[in-house]
């Protein structure tokens, strides 16, 4: 079976002298091209080819502008030039051209300058006077100013100083590879490599005004907003935090340390409580030297902070800043903020609070406009045997049986194709094996005995407590048929238990296998070695704590991800490691198998999620765009999409086919630690350190519910098999059950709500809460619904 095509777009893999290759997206402004895709070849059969870089189309930077993009990645070839260079005849075009040439000369980009001059057919004498910064006339300086605010260029080494007379603070964003090391992040709207050229990033904080006036500027704006009408106040209050951050960083960068300290102390208490962690990091940046290489600083600087404001509120703000001639704040608004203006009524404080809180503000509305196929794929038609009590089949757990009963098409499902489902062949999926078909038959039989849950019929909960887990339990997973449970531990081991009377057995040695009659009906039983039977198997191989574990749907394999930067694939036939997937450079926080097997996803500290196939040693897709660690990953039930939750307080939905980010959900006030899709694929539930569970409509890209009740991090979420109940497990030692049917009924998803984000969340958490179940002192790490809707929960007892 063919894996996903490994080259959806052409990707330049640029080899640096040190470190692994870095993926460069195919075009400017295509999203954050992050992470390094270098892997070592230790897979079973090396998957070749370039890795298709995935990048978020609705990324975090400013809108790509169709202006002159100057790339200075290599001095060997001529740099790209605009297709249609301006004619030298028109005076305005000529001045613009002179400004560009002057900028290129200052930036020491000789080759680009020569190429542009040749393209415009300018004589050497015509621009000879534009070499020195002081010799440009005032009109040329204005043209340079206007242009420099739009040109994205990259200079190897220190950033170019602004030409005299420019009012903009040189928005120089890195485009190609600067001579520094590579790193993650996005500057302006241009995808960059792993470490952006810090001097270019910081150059925007050039001296802009009297440092002693900063407090006055900020106080003046604060007074104006607080005295404005209630309807505008809530929207304009969103400006406080990003302006505070950028004004503080500007003071620090220009070495006004005392003014910066005074500014911070005076205004940091005014910021919203959910920014406290960011402010703590910010307060440690007190010198210019601290800013270089600081991830948080680069996040603030390189991703435009997105604010969604009504047109009336925006006009009010603009008028005030122009009347006061407050250029300092206006420059920051234009350079560092992306204001998403909508027509209509301003939003209320409650509506805004529901959506804000992420590291880069809200998501732009365009980010959630693309079509998502959230429907389920059509189930293959499988004939179900008439014999209901097929004990032998149950004992074999999906393995081929001795006698095959007559088949009849009584139970074959002839479902119509879901109109919202993706085409069946949109991505290549593995074909069903005989054992898979038998397992599906078992599943259908179990379904007939499934308990219908609801407010009047709550599930029982069976809690697996890990006692004396002094090794430190860090991850848990349960097989779909609830027969095996795996635990990942901080001592770098993975332990697998059988929770049925059937013990775990390994395959016999090769010498013994040669004696077995391969034609016998029970060959799969004979190859197992009874001497190795035990309830527990320990898997050794990782060299750091194991943070993620996932069983394959057919129960033949187990994935584990670790602090050592690898994902390992283990065989549950031999209980040995088959492959170590090395693509992440830092700890891998989570991994999960696709519902159809074969594909799996991983996410880690390098801020990137990767899509893999079990038979390829390199990732098939790299999902780059998050501004902080990817803490949790989850496949959509139709396997065409992957959801990732991050410490940047956003959830993103990625298209597996092309690697694009198709949804960005903001609203959590802390790092996200749990995700789950509803069984029908239409909704997503997310849990975070803020103790809230948020519900999202994937099709419309809207938040549709908020469940409050937990007092600590929500570590696990699961929908019941038919989607009637949502179970949540938390570090507050409780499992809570919520009425999912009621939460999703009568949703407001009209066009106006979708267009403006005017969401009205009902305060009905207590009505939706069906039950709270306390443990004595065991944080809930994992939840699972069995095929008959019994809840299994797991966690390690932690004595107080």
UniProtKB/TrEMBL annotation:
Biased composition (Gly residues): 30-50
Single GO MF descriptor: RNA polymerase II general transcription initiation factor activity
Signal peptide range in chain numbering: none
Organism, as annotated: Sapajus apella (Brown-capped capuchin)
Protein name (record): Transcription initiation factor TFIID subunit 5
Sorted UniProt keywords: Nucleus, Repeat, Transcription, Transcription regulation, WD repeat
Domain of life of the native organism: Eukaryota
SUPFAM superfamilies the UniProt entry points to: Taf5 N-terminal domain-like (SSF160897), WD40 repeat-like (SSF50978)
UniProt keyword annotation of Transit peptide present: no
GO cellular component annotations of the record: transcription factor TFIID complex
WD repeats: 466-507, 539-574, 581-612, 623-664, 665-698, 707-739
